[in-house]
C-alpha cells in the first residue's frame, strides 16, 4: 500500500506543475517542498500568460492552485533520500518514510537525489531523461534544471513537470492521456 500515487520532491514550477496535472486527474499526489526555489529571486516577464508578477507571488498563486486540487503539500519538509522498494519508491524525510508508486524529482540544479537513486547522467553531467522526463530508473522522473545544461527557465521547468505527470497518467490509464480542458470544464 502506498501513501501516495505520486511523490514530488521540490515545490518550484516543475514540481507544482507535475503535482497539478497528477492531482487534477485523480492521482493522490504529495509534494515535499523546502521552499528554496529560485523563484523567490525572480520576476516574471517571460512566462506565457503572465504579463508581470513577482516570483514569490507566483509561488503563492501556484501553491493555492495545487491546494484546490487536493495536493498534499508537505511544506518545509526536506527529503533526505529516495530509493526503489520493489513496487515503487520510499521517500525518506526528516519526519519518516513515505511510499509512492511514482517519483518526480524537481530539485532544481541539485542532482544528488537522482544520483543516489541510480539515475543515468549524460556527458554534460545532467540527469538523462527521455522526452517524457522519465529517467533511466523506471517510474522515476527528473525535471527542470537537473536535466538541462544551463537552460534554466521557469516556464521550461513547468513544461517538464507537466510532461512527467502526463506520462504517469498515460501509464496509469493504459493509453495516451491528454489533459485538455474546455470552457465548460471551468463552469
Written description of the protein model:
The structure is a single chain. The protein is an alpha/beta fold and about 190 residues long. It has a single domain, classed as 3-Layer(bba) Sandwich (FAD/NAD(P)-binding domain), CATH 3.50.50. The protein is built from 4 helices and 9 strands, in the order βαβββαββββαβα. The strands form 2 sheets. Strands 1, 2, 5, 6, 7, 8 and 9 form a 7-stranded mixed β-sheet that branches. It has a two-stranded antiparallel ribbon with strand order 3-4.
Put the structure in a nutshell.
This protein is of the alpha/beta class and 187 residues long. It has a single domain (4-186), classed as FAD/NAD(P)-binding domain (3-Layer(bba) Sandwich). The chain is 28% helix and 23% strand.
* Strand segment tally: 9
Count of alpha/pi helices:
4
CATH class descriptor name: Alpha Beta
Determine the oligomeric state from the structure.
single chain
Provide the fold topology.
Layout: E1 4-9, H1 13-24, E2 29-33, E3 43-44, E4 53-54, H2 55-68, E5 72-75, E6 79-84, E7 89-93, E8 96-105, H3 112-117, E9 140-142, H4 154-173
Parallel strand pairs: 1-2, 1-8, 2-5, 8-9
Antiparallel strand pairs: 3-4, 6-7, 7-8
Helix pairs in contact: 1-2, 1-4
Task: Write out key terms for the chains shown.
4 helices, 7-stranded mixed beta sheet, 23% strand, alpha/beta, 187 residues, FAD/NAD(P)-binding domain, globular
